[in-house]
Amino acid sequence: MMKWLLPIVLVCLFASCSNNAEQQKAVENQNITTDTAAYYKRYDGTIAGQPVVLHLVKNSRLLTATYYYTKQGKPIDLYFMADSGIANGYLADEPTEQLDAQQQPQWKVVITGNTITGKWISADKQKTHEINLQEAYPAGSYQLTAWERNETIKLRTDKEEPAATCSYMLLRLKDKTNKDNVAFFDKLLLNEIVNDTTHKTIEESVEASIMAYGNGYKEEMKGEPDSNIGSWMNYASSSEMKVVMNDNDWIVFEMSSYGYTGGAHGNYGVSYMNIDMQQKRVWKMEDILLVDTTALQTLLEAEARKYYNMSANAKLEDNYLTDKILPNGNVFITHTGIAFVYNPYEIASYAQGIISLYIPYSKLQALLQPAFKQRMGL
């Protein structure tokens, strides 16, 4: 598990498992007006009459969502930008199955109160379908609250730049009445995510982390003459959480972070937590699967070829940095399958972004651990 909240771990806020870093940058500065505070909302509804579930997260920079068709289960990421011509209107391009596709499906919606309504428009603009979503938390799902903390540490108190910016957006249980759930969840955030055994609360831990990051930044820049000081010395560290699944007493989180310390670009990546609120535990790859590397390699490489529309005989090195793709432990579950996620440079270049290879349970039956099959009802 990536200990992602420590700023020294330089992995990215501006990426998702579907390689949307550039899209996320493009919408980051849009004026998000649905609410002033950060929040999470879960929606049920339909697109073209097909049942879907959507998880919406807002922070001070972005309005993002992950949704899936309940029959299929594979998550699809959305990054909303304001539609200036419509009150509470938003647009989002939907990623395509094929990486080299020239056009993308689009959402054109209105987000008001507890509803999302509008149109899904096909990539070729020839088809439109109704989107009708309603905020809902059925039994086995959890209301979450978003907590955001942003800080700017100036190198010189009399100048706006250079500076180091540090930001966090965490999701926590909203219902505080179930003390066991709250204690389990908060301890999990501290131990598994923040990797902090010193402080008692998330707030204390984040403040200490920001202070350490700021002190480290100033120490690194110490001794620089004023003639060298400029905006090129700006640093950044960002960390946030989003929801992949929130049903049947499962909460599956994506944790993404970004770090920039000079140079051509920052570094980024994501990791996942499959939280079982029923059994009060986190399921990792070895809990879910019998890790038969050979069998998994065959499945993963087939998906990797599909991702780039490669023939079965094509060499992986034609599109990847490796001649074989092995499981790396960075996985998340849905109710229909498992995604194996690879951060930049693991199997592909920085420019290719994050690669997510999704394998349905139907192809993994022989490898699923009995306890996991029982928990999922497979």
The succession of helices and strands, N to C, reads HEEEEEEEEEEHHEEEEHHEEEH
Provide the domain count: 3
Placed side by side, the strands forming the largest sheet appear as 1-2-3-4-5-6-7-8
Give the fraction of residues assigned to helices. Answer: 10-25%
Strand fraction equals 35-45%
Q: N-to-C terminal Cα separation, in Å?
A: 26 Å
CATH homologous superfamily placement of the largest domain: Fervidobacterium nodosum Rt17-B1 like
CATH fold annotation of the largest domain: Heat Shock Protein 90
The biggest sheet amounts to: 8 strands, antiparallel, barrel
Radius of gyration, taken over Cα atoms and rounded to an integer in Å: 21 Å
How many H/I helices? 6
Mean pLDDT: 87
- What is the SS-derived class? alpha+beta
CATH architecture term of the largest domain: 2-Layer Sandwich
